[in-house]
Design goal:
With 242 residues, this protein is α/β, with parallel strands linked by helices. The protein contains seven helices and ten strands. α3 crosses α4.
Length: 242
């Protein structure tokens, strides 16, 4: 795989229980960009993300990440993963949490402090995570992922429950990280966040409806915004299936 590709999936099929979540998905995610994975709840976004980080059992297909098979031990320090639910310890402080996760991937306390600053939690660094708001706890998870200075950052609905100002600030951070050469995959069901992504992958029922820049998507559909473009693609797919 070339250096300008962060993730490559070929004919990925994932079945959970009796449900086929991803029937036959092929997609290439470029490196050094913020790639938005957009779609309604149940479209397969979280399953695709879990496949990237190597924690999802797949029935068939290929998933390569940073040139290696997804889930390879060598990738553990190269990928930062933020789940929908905060994956931190409520009985530890913000600082203790971030320093703990930093040490797991071989980073030092300075890196942990920088990550705390990056998510604007300096004033809460000494507080127990269990006493923070939901949005603040989500930011602790993000700081824990950033502390290892990952090449690829995979974020599952990172802005859910956050106020507009913090959402704006986090998207600004994502853009700066990409500008430094990191690759980001950010899932969301909020279509207005599409304008903050370098590239968009629109999912519905486990299939890719579009893989394009926002400008390309708008030109293709004649829509004025991502939400309208997504609906136009759904309508076209429904008509083609008749």
């Amino acid at each position: 795989m070339m250096n300008d590709v962060a993730v490559e999936m070929e004919h990925l099929r994932v079945v959970r229980g009796s449900r086929v979540v991803l029937p036959d998905l092929s997609v290439t995610i470029p490196a050094g960009q913020v790639v938005g994975l957009l779609g309604p709840s149940g479209s397969g976004k979280s399953t695709l993300i879990r496949s990237i980080v190597g924690v999802q059992v797949v029935e068939s297909g290929l998933v390569r990440v940073l040139g290696q098979e997804a889930g390879s031990p060598a990738l553990r320090s190269r990928i930062g993963y933020v789940t929908q639910s905060p994956s931190v310890y409520d009985d530890l402080s913000v600082r203790a949490n971030v320093r703990y996760f930093a040490r797991i991937v071989g980073a030092d306390d300075t890196a942990a402090e920088d990550a705390i600053d990056a998510v604007d939690l300096r004033d809460h660094a000494g507080q127990l995570v269990g006493r923070l708001s939901g949005g603040q706890r989500s930011r602790v998870s993000l700081a824990a992922a950033l502390a290892g200075d990952p090449e690829l950052l995979v974020l599952d609905e990172p802005t859910v429950g956050l106020d507009p100002v913090l959402r704006r600030d986090l998207w600004g951070l994502f853009g700066r990280l990409a500008g430094q050469g990191r690759s980001l995959v950010v899932s969301s069901h909020v279509m207005d966040e599409a304008s903050r992504c370098d590239r968009l992958i629109l999912l519905r029922e486990g299939e890719v409806l579009a893989d394009a820049t926002l400008d390309e998507l708008l030109a293709r559909t004649g829509a004025h915004d991502a939400d309208s473009a997504f609906l136009a693609l759904i309508d076209r797919a429904a008509q083609a299936a008749r």
